[in-house]
């Protein structure tokens, strides 16, 4: 009798389209089974306590850094990015694992709250507990750093995790769980399931307690809808169109260096990568001239040959091409590169200037090695234009004196002043966006608390003669409560 072949898919090297590996498409039934095992393991993982979990996570982080070339090689193979970039990404992820492991206990410590005058006889406390099983769905652009920002924090808080990596980087996703399981005290604490969008969909409606998604805004809406149908809460880390504001008093040389790296590194496939620059017209010519000069020294190519690699996802080439064409058709000017810079799978750097704000190229996430530089007559205008986007992930501000003042007026989740990307590397600060860039946070205390729930406990310390939480409440009790409320002007609670 012929046996039924298991559905599978291949991951490819985007440089030459060669098959890197073949992975099973995990079915809905198998997702259910995996989540059930994760739930069964949950109690034992919680019982291990903060110290026990810290030991496991720190051991995992050591294992990853000791084998950095193995995992970086796989990242480079599946995404096409240079080894050096892969190593940097992995090092940053390892720091996050260590931070989450070391800080979970203090972040989740029971907090004591003031009960207020009317409740002065009560002790009020808030405890934090892990939510149970966390589902994580990840993208391919930073296939270690991005999912680890959810996985490590969820594990440190005492949850078990089921992870669905991108279909472009399943090998990296498998490596993460396999390496964890080498040092895990028992199975099913952290499992990777491979597959396409349907497998991710099955995870959304499975018996998980929270879903942490990183990917495009379009998919985030589908994920949120599926999760809403079963009342599963979500963290959504989505796309961006990050602005860079350059004031007249900026260090232009440094601003150009960081901005061009932010825009071009990883072939522009960074959610927090610079996509549009608003530069004060007084320094715009210098900024543009330096940007062109720098772009001319940067080349896309295979790992070992280029400063950055190919477009990892072949379909992105069409989006990049259409944005360059739209920018030109709408009145913008290519001052370096142009439509001819796109030679799949590589895209050489493109610098566009004076692109009208209503152009698709300015409004939509390009996710390619392209930078748009527009002049502004004031910082007020730069702030307004930055904030008109439907996205609100990160932003960079370059100014010697007004950095903080500008940063505080931006509608976005993170701002780097006289720097770029820095907030992603600081483990103690939350990472995430507003508007179409998502909701909820990863990293830092806020990110860890996403994978916990608050349990309020109020305890009677002594009894008051006042019986207002009883059918024995008397008219004089009512009068007293109202009189106190009036005198204290709402300071009762
Ligand atoms: P994507 O939305 O195409 O896919 C993300 C994941 O969702 C993949 O694992 C995919 O298999 C899964 N998926 C697809 N359809 C699904 C469905 N119906 N239900 C459940 N899961 C489904 O995104 P991508 O192309 O992998 O990643 C690039 C995007 O991610 C960019 O927009 C980028 O800005 C964003 N991103 C955001 C952050 C952040 O922290 N905000 C970080 C990295 C990437």
From TrEMBL:
Annotated SUPFAM superfamilies: ALDH-like (SSF53720)
Pfam families in alphabetical order: Aldedh
Keyword Oxidoreductase belongs to the record: yes
GO terms of biological process kind: aldehyde metabolic process
An annotated Gene Ontology molecular function: oxidoreductase activity, acting on the aldehyde or oxo group of donors, NAD or NADP as acceptor
InterPro entries: Ald_DH/histidinol_DH, Ald_DH_C, Ald_DH_CS_CYS, Ald_DH_CS_GLU, Ald_DH_N, Aldehyde_DH_dom, Aldehyde_DH_NAD(P)
Keywords: Oxidoreductase
PROSITE patterns in alphabetical order: ALDEHYDE_DEHYDR_CYS, ALDEHYDE_DEHYDR_GLU
Family to which the UniProt record says this protein belongs: Belongs to the aldehyde dehydrogenase family.
Protein name, UniProt field: Unannotated protein
Organism (species): freshwater metagenome
